[in-house]
């Protein structure tokens, strides 16, 4: 368990979110989830609850909107973290069921990306339920934590991706979680 001041690794974050997701979705253990993170960096503990919210929103969206909610064995989720000179790139990818309406999804993707570019996430009521998940992600990184740099969603054939760049200021340092 983490209080708001304990620093944490990316693997700690994902493990916590996976445990919570198991409580939300009975068969979440059936999801084929891969995490790519070759780093041994630690994040500032004060961001933990915010990043838990972000990851849970993305995992929830993957389960609900992939078309595999009733058969999670078919759902694949890849979470990739890359660290660049100035930013941390997070990519959340999931496969999509053939029955998903790709044209409707593409329209939603276009709208989300457009609203991000226009800064509409600043004026959205993020306490509202339903359909607000990715706006809450934007709001968390750009308004609450003020660490967001870039955000986009896309579909490439049968893969949906949420890509986020955040400022490295979220990091404590490499290797030593207590500094």
Please specify the SSE layout and strand pairing:
Elements: H1 10-24, E1 32-36, E2 41-43, H2 48-65, E3 76-83, E4 87-95, H3 102-117, H4 133-144, E5 148-156, E6 159-167, E7 171-174
Parallel strand pairs: 1-3
Antiparallel strand pairs: 2-7, 3-4, 4-6, 5-6
What does this structure look like?
By secondary structure, the protein is of the alpha+beta class. 34% of the residues lie in helices and 26% in strands. The strands form 2 sheets. A 5-stranded mixed beta sheet has the order 1-3-4-6-5. It is globular, with a radius of gyration of 16 Å. The model has no long low-confidence stretch (mean pLDDT 86).
Q: Summary?
A:
This protein is of the alpha+beta class and 179 residues long. It is built from four helices and seven strands, in the order αββαββααβββ. A five-stranded mixed beta sheet has the order 1-3-4-6-5. The chain has a two-stranded antiparallel ribbon with strand order 2-7.
